[in-house]
Amino acid sequence: MTTVSTPPTFPPIGSPTFNGDAYSWAVFMANTYTGQINAVAGEVNANKVSADADAATATSKAAAAAASAASAASAPGTSATSVTSLTIGTGSKTLTIDTGKSLVVGMSVKVAYTTTPTNWMFGDVTAYNSGSGSLTVNVTLTNGSGTQSAWTVSLSGPTGGTATGTNTGDQTSIVGITGTMAQYNTSVTDGDFAYLSANTFTGAQNFADQQVSRATMLDCSMLVVDKGSVVGGTVAFDYTAGSVQTFTAGAATSWSFTNWPPTGTLGNLLVQVTNGGNYTQTISGVNWIKPDGTIATTLATYLAANSGRTALQTGGMDQLLFWTRDAGTTVYGKLV
After folding, report:
1. 4-38, pLDDT tens digit by residue?
2. Quick one: 295 and 313 in the same domain?
3. Between β-strands 295-296 and 286-289, what pairing exists: parallel, antiparallel or unpaired?
């Protein structure tokens, strides 16, 4: 824009030339600056319109940013919700959650009932489709029960509940478990967990033919299985039922043995028979060890060499010990 010129020196008001000089200066100013002033006004107005548009854009972006921040605060990439109907339990569970989450295979998650979060399932992610929201979790720990359709999914470690499955290998710690071991005393199933120090077991323990090393046995006993009176047929001695089994003979009976321990281990079975001599007792496939170390193949031959009689007692109890080292392929026996 042109610099405003210095106004001319006018004669005193009332002078014969004042009006003419003033008019000439006014015309000069109008011709020089009117177009330029209008152009500046147009530019100012355009800048104002542009500023208004920029302000509106900034407001919109601020609102979007606030919404994104609120969404991020309430639903981070590893948290989600689901309305899939599921029954609390172990095993593979599939549910549909929010899409676009940052869940990957191997993450440990808790799927909690939104209304009552103390009812939950815990496990590892085995599959997640971020496009469809399909999430699959291998549930290994649970707490509570029931079928629900309002779930909250989050990264978490278990804090109690019922463990299922079978513990394999030597465990010196329980990875991922928080809280105290006392929480598991009454809820752990299948003997999954035990203290590394003293333990008191209140139920049967099955070691599945596994080795127990360097054990000092104190105050131990053998389970006695009383078969009662056996009247004829076959009396079956299942080694897994107990190492001491007893019965009273009520008729001629054939004996059979099943489920000896595996080859390479010694299985001993003590049979207590009352009044066995009143009836024929057929015990086949046993190698009877005579006092001189030789073998008799029949009970009568063995008894004759061992006690001078050929049958069991007719009015009392005989105790016969049987053992094998090859899962029952070769069974030995003797009177004790």
Report:
1. 666 666 666 667 777 777 777 777 777 777 777 77
2. yes
3. antiparallel
Contact 267, 295 (CB under 8 A): no
Domain that holds residue 245: 224-335
Tokens 């940052």 belong to 102
The structural domain count of the chain equals 3
Which of 134, 248, 133, 143 has its CA nearest to residue 187?
143
Final residue of a domain: which of 37, 58, 74? 74
Tell me: pLDDT of 174 over 70. Answer: no
pLDDT in tens, 285-315: 999 999 999 999 999 999 999 888 889 999 9
Best mean pLDDT range from 61-70, 196-205, 303-312: 303-312
The CA radius of gyration of the chain, in Å to the nearest whole number, is: 48
Under a CB-based contact definition with an 8 Å cutoff, are residues 81 and 114 in contact?
Answer: yes
Range in 70-84, 193-207, 213-227 the model is least confident about = 70-84
User: Is residue 124 a contact partner of residue 90, using CB atoms and an 8 Å limit?
Assistant: no
Q: In whole angstroms, what is the distance from residue 331 CA to residue 73 CA?
A: 72
Residues 119 and 170 in one domain: yes
Amino acid in the structure at residue 124: D
Compute φ and ψ for 59, nearest 5 degrees.
-65, -45
Distance of alpha carbon 240 from alpha carbon 238, whole angstroms: 5
Closest CA to 278 of 334, 225, 234, 232: 232
pTM for this one? Answer: 0.46
Kindly state the percentage of the chain with pLDDT values over 70: 79
